[in-house]
Structure formats: structure tokens, C-alpha cells
Amino acid sequence: MLSAHLPNCRRGQAGFTLMELTVVIALIAILTALIIPEMRGTYEDALLRATGRELVNTFELASSRAISLNQPHRVQLDLKTGHYQVARKTRVAGQESFVPLTDVSGSEGALDPRITLEMQAPDEAVPADAEMAVPTEPGHFMFYPDGTADAAAIQLRDRAGFRLQLVLNPVTSRIHLTEPIRE
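^ thats the sequence. predicted structure below, dont judge the formating
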């Protein structure tokens, strides 16, 4: 009865052949093999940029708090673990120390462990004619009430070898993001 309603279709010719299905599956496999590596690079690039943006936001927080509260602040960054924390300078019993901020969102956290951090020498980070304060301790970046900061450069690298460089301008305490030339 069913074939009576389909006059143009002969019985047994209603589906795809095995050869047609094999060709379609082979084409899907080839396209997938071409697209997946590109998507992986895009994901790695997005992860690298998100990590750089997180550091920029932390440095901007420390800079704006130093200026608005008229009190030096510093970002403490552990280059091995990626943990960071913003601290303010205080004086207790005649001694100066740094106390971590606890009441400010974004003042503490950890960067993605798939991204490695590397400090560069201050002379590589800023132009030779700029006056700069050299960081007193590795991984500590000072921000002062007058809007200046210690000169520094941090290079971020993902597992695929893509790099992003953050350069801290000592005069304006602003971060400049650059992509170094690939080796």
C-alpha cells in the first residue's frame, strides 16, 4: 500500500548507497582535521589574551588606589604559581609594611597555570631615555601616589609558543600590551 502512494519511487531505491555515505563521512573527517587545529590556536590565543587582560586590570587597580588614597600600593606576583595580590603600604609601630587588600574585588587571584610568566630586565622594558625606578624585589611592582610606578616588563607565553608582553610605563603607570616578533 505504501508504494501505491509513491508512484515515482521504485521499491528499494528510497535510501543512500553505502558508497555515498562513505564519501560524506570521509569529507566530514577531512574538514574536521583541518578545522580543529585552527580552533585550538584560537583558544590558546584567547587564553593568553585573557590572562594578560587580568594582569592589566590588577595593575590598573593598584595604580588607581595608590593615586586616590595617596598611599603607595604594590602588586605581588609569584612568577612560578601565577598567584597575585594587591597590597597597600602602612605604618605600624613606626615600621612600614604592606598589608593585602581584603575589601576590594579583583585584588587577589591566580592566573591560568597553562600560561608561563617571565620577567624581563627594566632596560629591555622601557626606552633608554625614560627615568625609571627599578623594582626592589622580583615580582613586586610598586605604584606611587604621584601616578608613577616601577618600570617592568612581563612576558606571557602559552604552551603553543605564542607570546604577549606587558610593559609597565614608569612615568604614567600604564600597561602597554605588545606581541613580540615570533622567533
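Residues 124-135 have pLDDT under 50 and may be disordered.
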